[in-house]
């Protein structure tokens, strides 16, 4: 035991003597000079310490340097690229007995680091020795000739930093070409770089635009990156806003990379607000999101394959290619699955809401100017399909859409869709590259159930039946009102086995006996539209020609077992008024619909007119009309007498 204590005492005394000797033998200034020399050889920049250096030998050997500066690039925006409040250098004891200084650990406190790109494109973070320019690189397209020198790391050159800790401070990134400045602060990072030819590991957290991000990254290896050889990189970035992960390879710097990218978060709205892009949306919209894709970037083209996206309750998959040109060029094939757009559509206007609440409110077209300039921001060719589509009240089954954007012109082709018990196809063209905007559309719908389609699409619930609907329309303007005022084209329709709600013209037919008796007062034709009434039909056909928003027809036809209707007139969309003249032929024959010609009944002219919210139906009982009806009655009475008496 005594021998052990004596031995321990000897060791302690030797260590104390070593520490005392080291404090006397080690010159902080010599170490500063060695560090400055190494830094200048490595970076080509001046390294200076403007305050006193403190040497500590216990519990480890370290030097504290204050007010440390690393010179900036020539003609930089400030003289120093880096200003460090305190730099602590940990030196292994064994390095004291070698000819070369080695550093075990750097601790950087409160740095102020500037990364900048000058107007001429030169950057201040290019340090390393450069070899001669590669001839092949000179001839490569898209190389900046002023900065086309290819870096190659000399075989004998290496940097071993051990562990680097960065506490506090900030990093400022300035691009003088784009006049863009970014500031990252509250740095709390640990970097492990045992050698340029071994993995570089980075971990810690930073703050950017008031949000803290947890960072984990590995680069395999820095030497390959410096020599412009393929290298691997893993990156994980986590915050309250989103989580981003990337695992892949950089095959050619700034030219080609591929890997797997994933991004997810709890709120799109919060993410956009952070980027100062506020998004007004409903509570249930633009919340949780996620994206996973195989990324391949080469030249100026970014490809996203095996793309899987989720937004709230929506789920998409497909592939996308983005050409990073001006404007952007996007080619995409997307399967939207069940697409419910209602949470993402803006709230209906007050006018539309009032119209839904009551039919007694006048319809007013919105005169707010639309801004479609965003269509010119990109060119695109999108092939989109979904198994179901919900937009406001419209409900479609399986559908396929192709969207082409080119120079501010949008062509939307609804290649096919299923819905409302029928099928359809059509197209819309929007020319927004100049004002006023021009819109053309054409659609063909077959075997469509009219009532739910028209109710869901335009809130018109007066027509029941199945049939065909087709239109070709064109318009121009800057607002909804403009588009209605300039609407031109045609609408054809043909429906069978249905009804027109709002008026019971069959009841008029049942009053034919009163007409024959000359009792016109007993005929009730003076009425308003009422959903309690309806006129059944076996067939309803017609065609409207539109000019400046006024739809005109001269071939309306409705066939009913007791009523034949032919009509003409116009519907003034800008003024939201109807003016139709209808000839109603009451079929008094028991043959009903099988009766032929005018002899089958008596003609009663009817006027249908008024604003959309208050349409009136009135018999046209003028003197001339009364005389015609009386003559018709006389003829019928004579015919009946001839039938009785021969």
Can you put this structure into words, describing what you see?
- Mean pLDDT is 78; it is low at 4-21, 130-149, 350-359, 589-600 and 640-646.
- Helix content is 17%, strand content 48%.
- The strands form two sheets. It has a 31-stranded mixed β-sheet that branches. It has a three-stranded mixed β-sheet with strand order 18-20-21.
- The chain starts with a helix and ends with a helix.
- A hairpin with a 4-residue loop joins β7 (170-175) and β8 (180-193).
- By secondary structure, it is of the alpha+beta class.
- The longest helix has 24 residues, at 2-25.
- It contains eleven helices and 34 strands.
- The protein is elongated.
What is the secondary structure topology, with strand pairs?
Layout: H1 2-25, H2 28-43, E1 47-49, E2 54-56, E3 62-71, E4 80-90, E5 105-117, H3 135-138, E6 162-167, E7 170-175, E8 180-193, E9 200-208, E10 211-220, H4 222-226, E11 231-238, E12 243-252, E13 256-265, H5 268-274, E14 289-298, E15 301-311, E16 314-323, E17 328-335, E18 338-340, H6 350-357, E19 378-386, E20 388-391, E21 394-396, E22 399-406, E23 409-419, E24 422-431, E25 437-449, H7 450-458, E26 463-477, H8 480-485, E27 488-502, H9 505-510, H10 512-516, E28 527-528, E29 530-547, E30 550-559, E31 563-572, E32 577-587, E33 601-611, E34 616-619, H11 623-645
Parallel strand pairs: 5-6, 5-7, 17-19, 18-20
Antiparallel strand pairs: 1-3, 2-3, 3-4, 4-5, 6-8, 7-8, 8-9, 9-10, 10-11, 11-12, 12-13, 13-14, 14-15, 15-16, 16-17, 19-22, 20-21, 22-23, 23-24, 24-25, 25-26, 26-27, 27-29, 28-34, 29-30, 30-31, 31-32, 32-33, 33-34
